[in-house]
Design goal:
The protein is about 35% helix and about 15% strand. It is an alpha/beta fold and about 300 residues long. It folds into two domains: about 200 residues, Flavodoxin domain (Rossmann fold); about 80 residues, no CATH class. Strands 2-1-3-4-5 form a five-stranded parallel sheet, with helices on both faces. A four-stranded antiparallel sheet has the order 6-7-8-9, with no helix packed on it. Strand 7 and strand 8 form a beta hairpin. Helix 1 packs across helix 7. The radius of gyration is 21 Å and the shape is globular. It starts with a strand and ends in a 12-residue tail after the last helix. Bound molecules: flavin mononucleotide. The site of flavin mononucleotide has 20 residues, from helix 1.
């Protein structure tokens, strides 16, 4: 029973301390733990070539063009074999830091829903996760971090069971002055192991309740027509569940539509729908290559003075 931690904060910073508190609880409850700080590994940024998505939508193995050139295999080998994932990263400008985004942008070749749909794997792995972020401010300045971390976990069909935000901790170790945050991190470790020990179909959310009844995010967006015409009044900006906001006794509540889970990214089925969207979008491009080429000429001929860094 293994927990693998992904960290991206300072050495002995607030995230490392919270993660270690959670690791200690996990070990006391029977788990083995291992971690990687993303600052200690080399990850080449995704260049957006779409080789992986084009290959997988054609039923081929979605290998990345950067495969073998950095530490991605080293870290993903641990990540894919773990039963539980603990993410502990700081909030930078309301979101996870760029280094975490660089890491998860390389996950398209591991998108479980796509691998299933293309017949490359037959059964999804059964993994659970818990999420931690620390920030110098309150939720108001940390509003997108946990939602973004959740999004990354769902890309790999990992069930998120708990999450926490340690607020008003700016300097390294400042979280040690907040016993509630330390206790919450301990609970995160306990809940993670509890979920790892449960039959997978019984694993449920153990954290605080949020607006979305599916993923508990508080990030809501106004719905717009999607690729197949489907439109919801309001969508959960994180998991894509659709519904509307209702006001009851002066309190707003997000209520799921009857078909509100059709596009929900928490479930493989919701993301498989996106697989077909990508396939259709690619098809439109391939069928119109000549037009794209002809219309591109104007832009190819238009040179803009551009800066190039050393080594590029
Ligand atoms: C570039 C940068 C941006 C930051 N943006 C935010 C922010 O938007 N909201 C917030 O609450 N804290 C913000 N912080 C503060 C860090 O989240 C805080 O110092 C945190 O404790 C760092 O975690 P660590 O100790 O694990 O490294 C920012 C810090 C840096 C360096």
């Amino acid at each position: 029973m293994k927990v693998f931690g992904i960290l991206a904060g300072r050495k002995m910073g607030n995230c490392e301390i919270l993660a270690k508190e959670a690791f200690m609880a996990a070990v006391e409850n029977g788990a083995e733990v291992e971690m990687a700080n993303l600052h200690d590994v080399k990850i080449i940024p995704c260049n957006g070539c779409e080789t992986c998505t084009m290959r997988v939508t054609q039923g081929k193995s979605p290998d990345c063009v950067h495969k073998g050139k950095d530490d991605m295999d080293l870290i993903m080998d641990k990540f894919l074999k773990a039963d539980g994932i603990l993410v502990a990263v700081p909030t930078f400008v309301l979101q996870p830091p760029g280094i975490y985004k660089t890491f998860i942008d390389r996950w398209l070749p591991y998108e479980i829903a796509f691998l299933l749909e293309a017949g490359i794997i037959e059964t999804p792995p059964k993994r659970v996760a818990a999420l931690i972020t620390a920030g110098g401010s309150t939720q108001s300045w940390m509003s997108l971090t946990l939602a973004a971390l959740q999004m990354s976990m769902f890309m790999q069909s990992i069930k998120v069971v708990d999450q926490m935000m340690a607020s008003r901790v700016a300097r390294p170790g400042q979280v040690l002055l907040k016993p509630d945050s330390i206790a919450r991190a301990r609970k995160i470790g306990e809940n993670l192991v509890k979920a790892m020990k449960m039959p997978y179909d019984q694993v449920q959310w153990m954290g605080d309740r949020g607006w979305c009844p599916v993923c508990h995010s508080n990030v809501m967006i106004q719905g717009q027509p999607q690729w197949d015409g489907k439109r919801y009044d309001i969508e959960c900006g994180m998991c894509g569940a659709g519904g509307s906001l209702v006001n009851e006794d002066g309190n707003s509540r997000f209520v799921l539509a009857d078909d509100g889970l059709e596009k929900c990214r928490v479930f493989s089925e919701g993301r498989q729908n996106h697989f077909y969207e990508i396939q259709q979008t690619h098809r439109e491009a391939f069928e119109n290559m000549e037009t794209i080429r002809a219309l591109s000429e104007k832009y190819r001929a238009y040179a803009v003075p551009a800066i190039r860094g050393e080594g590029k």
